[in-house]
Automatic annotation (TrEMBL):
<protein>
    <submittedName>
        <fullName>Helix-turn-helix domain-containing protein</fullName>
    </submittedName>
</protein>
<feature type="domain" description="Helix-turn-helix">
    <location>
        <begin position="15"/>
        <end position="60"/>
    </location>
</feature>
<dbReference type="InterPro" id="IPR041657">
    <property type="entry name" value="HTH_17"/>
</dbReference>
<dbReference type="Pfam" id="PF12728">
    <property type="entry name" value="HTH_17"/>
</dbReference>
Length: 65
């Protein structure tokens, strides 16, 4: 895979950029279970959100139509 599209997207800000929404929306969707994200590292309260690029692309495709 090319360097421009890493297989894992890390952080609410980066995920929001990919989805075209705010980082707060990403956090809210994650909290409601509507976004298939996980917590990186130890999974603690301050751990960044991570999502697999394929899952994100599938979600974007589903949102479009």
């Amino acid at each position: 895979m090319s360097g421009n599209n890493p297989p894992i997207i890390r952080g609410a800000k980066a995920i929001a950029h990919e989805l075209g929404c705010s980082p707060r929306t990403v956090s809210r969707l994650a909290a409601n279970g509507k976004l298939p994200v996980k917590k990186a590292f130890s999974g603690g309260r301050t751990s960044p959100l991570v999502i697999n690029r394929k899952e994100l692309d599938d979600l974007k495709h589903d949102r479009k139509g």
